[in-house]
Design a protein that fits this description.
Blueprint lengths: L50 H10 L4 H5 L15 H13 L5 H10 L1 H7 L6 H9 L2 H17 L7 E10 L7 E2 L1 H23 L7 H34 L12 E2 L6 E4 L5 E12 L5 E7 L7 H13 L5 E3 L7 H9 L3 E3 L21 H10 L2 H24 L10 H25 L1
Parallel strand pairs: 1-7, 7-8
Antiparallel strand pairs: 1-5, 2-3, 4-5, 5-6
Helix pairs in contact: 1-3, 1-14, 3-14, 4-5, 4-6, 7-14, 8-9, 11-12
């Protein structure tokens, strides 16, 4: 009722029809409580040229035998039938393509979104199954990424003579306040041990009215919290060992800290400025085809040691030799450049500015090996500068694509292994979207 109007004072004239018959108008009113049984043909939910059909065609051509080998529901053996891995892979590829990284959101989309309904084909999916599958098959997912690259190499699309590498920092699923020093972690470990024992005795008490499922959940929650603290202490020992090896004298005011939420996360400089818990995700791209040819994840903020590992990975995945490696200044290490030269790899990376006024940074210096000297002279040429510009046009585009459209701004999983799975999903989706025609043909 509108403000200022009194329902008792409103007089409604009784309508009359053309024949002068009085009575209330007959209306078809909305009834949203009724249950409708509507016939539906799933194949007509989407048009013939919909992108999800192309995605499914690519998945059908993949070798998924490793995923099927571990399924225990076989023949007439008891147990519930397993969900087809082909469906789960296709659903997560399409979700990653749209930047959806939540299992609950994917479950919701599978209930009403036409493309997701078409993909699952009437198979019910819950968020537990979706989330577990997403991060539980790191080795198989890595092999799937390699298989896609092998197809592109076989078709002559990828050759990897010249690759470009870049690292991007991604926010971890941990808060800054979850990082604790050793003394705090050790005290917390003692408290949690006592807490786990208290919870166990309380749940074993006959007077406890919780169901068996609730008891198991409470016991598991207490146990997992204790395990995270134990893991945080192990990671803290690694940090202390690494800090002890540093040439600079460690500061007493900034002792190492580890997170009780995600022990493997590290505080590092983030792209937007400032510092926060994160992971360093490395991608290598083939300059000519713009395909992603290498993926790695580390919790070290520095990129200095990453170029050799990535180059070796790309060569193993593709079976081809890398001849030219483009990277930014964060990867520059004289030892790694020298080793790259010994492997007949030309490095294209910016030369640091000279520390002394008037000194030419591109001139060979005392103590430089032949590879470092060649790198300095190479980067002084105009041809090398033109080649180096290809790094930004490729690597920055890959990072922007994955962060803006594939949901890689922050990972919602914890631990290096699971974060690497997310990085592989993003890389696999990127290559399929760009080379679907080649993979199907």
């Amino acid at each position: 009722m509108l403000p200022g109007l009194d329902a008792e004072r409103i007089e409604v004239a009784t309508p009359r029809d053309a024949a002068g018959v009085e009575g209330s108008p007959r209306l078809r009113r909305a009834n949203r409580d009724q249950i409708l049984l509507e016939p539906c043909e799933l194949d007509r939910l989407i048009p013939d040229d919909h992108e999800v059909r192309t995605l499914w065609a690519v998945v059908e051509r993949m070798d998924l035998s490793a995923f099927y080998e571990e399924i225990q529901a076989r023949g007439s053996a008891p147990g519930r039938s397993a969900t087809d891995p082909k469906i789960l892979i296709a659903v997560w590829l399409y979700a990653t393509k749209n930047g959806v990284g939540s299992g609950r959101e994917v479950e919701r989309l599978c209930g009403h979104h036409a493309a997701y309904r078409w993909l699952r084909g009437g198979v019910e999916l819950n968020y537990h199954t979706l989330n577990d599958f997403r991060v539980a098959h790191g080795d198989k997912l890595d092999q799937l990424f390699t298989d896609v690259l092998a197809c592109l190499v076989h078709q002559g699309v990828v050759t990897v003579e010249r690759i470009s590498q870049d690292g991007t920092r991604v926010r971890a699923s941990a808060g800054s306040s979850s990082f604790r020093r050793r003394a705090t972690l050790e005290a917390l470990r003692g408290e949690l041990r006592q807490h786990v024992e208290t919870v166990r005795k309380r749940l074993e008490d006959p007077a406890c009215d919780a169901s068996q499922r609730q008891r198991a959940a409470k016991a598991r929650a207490a146990r997992e919290r204790q395990e995270r603290v134990e893991e945080a202490l192990k990671e803290l020992a690694k940090l202390e060992e690494a800090k002890a090896k540093q040439k600079a004298k460690p500061s007493k005011n900034s002792p190492p800290r580890a997170s009780t939420t995600d022990p493997q996360a590290r505080v590092m400089k983030m792209p937007g400025g400032g510092y926060g818990p994160g992971y360093n995700i490395q991608y290598a791209g083939h300059v000519a085809s713009r395909a992603i040819v290498g993926v790695d994840v580390t919790n070290v903020g520095s990129d200095v040691q990453e170029s050799e590992l990535m180059r070796r990975q790309v060569e193993e995945r593709t079976g081809k030799k890398v001849n030219e490696h483009l990277m930014d200044g964060g990867f520059v290490g004289l030892d790694s450049i020298e080793r790259a030269a010994s492997d007949k790899v030309a490095v294209y990376a910016p030369v640091p500015e000279a520390k002394k006024p008037g000194q030419d940074p591109h001139a060979p210096r005392r103590g430089d090996g032949p590879g470092v000297s060649a790198w300095r002279c190479r980067m002084a040429t105009e041809e090398a500068q033109l080649i180096y510009r290809q790094r930004a046009s490729l690597s920055e585009t890959i990072n922007a694509d994955l962060k803006a459209w594939r949901g890689l701004r922050q990972v919602r999983v914890r631990g290096l292994a699971k974060v690497r799975c997310i990085a592989l999903w993003c890389a696999l989706t990127y290559n399929i979207l760009h080379f679907a025609g080649v993979l199907i043909g």
